Structures are given as C-alpha cells and as structure tokens.
Amino acid sequence: MKKFMTGRGYALVGAAVLALGGGVVASAQAPERNVWSGVYTAEQAERGKTAYAENCAACHGDTLAGIDVAPALTGGTFLNNWNNTSAGDLFGRIQSTMPLNAPGSLGGKTVSDIEAFIFQSNGFPAGELALPPNQAMMTNVKISAQKPAG
Ligand code: HEC
Asked: Keywords assigned by UniProt (predicted)?
C-alpha cells in the first residue's frame, strides 16, 4: 500500500489543487464585459447562421422576425426582454428550452454559435474572442439594449 504513495503522487495532487484554486480565483475576477464590446467572432456568427437555419428558422423566421407565436429574436421587444441580463442567461434559456420541439438537444458550442448570430443580427459588433461554449463562462457578459456611454 505504502509504495503507491510516492512523492510524485503527492506533487500531482498538489498541482491539481493549485490548478483548481487558480480557476476559482480567475472566474471570480473575470471583468464584466458588455455585448457592445465585441464578445463573439464574425466566423462564429457565420456558423451560428447555419445552425439557426437548421434549428430555429422554421419557427422564428429566416430573418429572426418571428412567426405567429414564436417571437422575434431581434429588435425592441426582444432586447427589452433581455436588457440587463447576461449572455449566460440567454444561453441557458436557449439550451434548456429551445428548439421548442426538442429542448436540450443542442450542444454548448452550437448554442453559443447561434447566440453569436443572434447578437450579430441585433447589431452588436463582432470582436477577437469567440463566445465560449458554456453558460458559466459568459455570465460576466452583460446584455444592454442600448450601447453604454463612453
Ligand atoms: C417549434 C418552434 C420553435 C423552434 C424550432 C424554436 N423556437 Fe424559440 N420559441 C418558440 C416559441 C413558441 C417561443 C415563445 C414561447 C416560449 O417562450 O416558450 C419561443 C421563445 C424563444 C426565446 C425567448 C424570446 C424572448 O423574447 O424572450 C428565445 C431566445 C428563443 N425562442 C430562441 C430559439 C432558438 C435560438 C432556437 C433554435 C435553437 C429556437 N428558439 C427554436 C418556438 C420555437
């Protein structure tokens, strides 16, 4: 038994604990960003456009304008609904309730690609970094209907 507890083993456990601790500190300190500061890439929105056409357009329309009971995903009412929430909130809403006929069927990467396309369609600018493929990693990205001053 004792022979398995080598010095190397302890060192590995120590490194893992350190890595974990570092992650927690990093996420607690993640600075708040805003959808107006470029939180997705143009390439990502392009992938999202394709995924949107396959999974969402039948109900929400090719131009995101909404059809019948499926609301628009661009414009005043949509932005009002999501004003002062986070990209993580919208991600969670999409991943857990949409597509309405198959909720939970889309992987995180597809959901974030589609969210990037929705952001692009609402006039938020593209940037250098892609929207991450997971809800927890984008709770610091604020959605503001109006571009913040400054
Ligand atoms: C089968 C039809 C259908 C499909 C497919 C569908 N939706 Fe929906 N969606 C709806 C309906 C109806 C509502 C309003 C009722 C509700 O919220 O459940 C809605 C609501 C929403 C909302 C909330 C809008 C707001 O203003 O708060 C979002 C966001 C959304 N859908 C995104 C998507 C995305 C992204 C996809 C593709 C992955 C998708 N939906 C696919 C029918 C659909």
From this structure: Heme, Iron, Metal-binding, Signal
